[in-house]
Amino acid sequence: MGLGLPLSARLIEQMEGTISATSDHGAQFTIRLPLRATSGEGR
Asked: Cα–Cα distances in Å, from 8 out to 5, 15, 23, 25, 37?
């Protein structure tokens, strides 16, 4: 159905991240997500 990449992109964007693609020597996807500080609770 081809839903994997659009679904992944939507989830990544909701987490304030980015996804990019290149095709120099085959498909390569780069996902960047922001780091979040942890308070140490719930460990």
From this structure: 5, 11, 18, 22, 23
Q: How many domains does the chain have?
A: 1
Secondary structure class of 35 (helix, strand, coil): coil
Instruction: Give the model confidence (pLDDT) of 7-40 as tens digits.
Output: 999 999 999 999 999 998 899 999 999 997 677 6
On whether residue 42 sits in a domain, the answer given is no
Q: Is residue 2 part of a domain?
A: yes
- As a whole number of angstroms, the distance between CA 9 and CA 15 comes to 10
Q: Does the predicted model carry a pTM greater than 0.70?
A: no
Structure tokens at 2: 């081809």
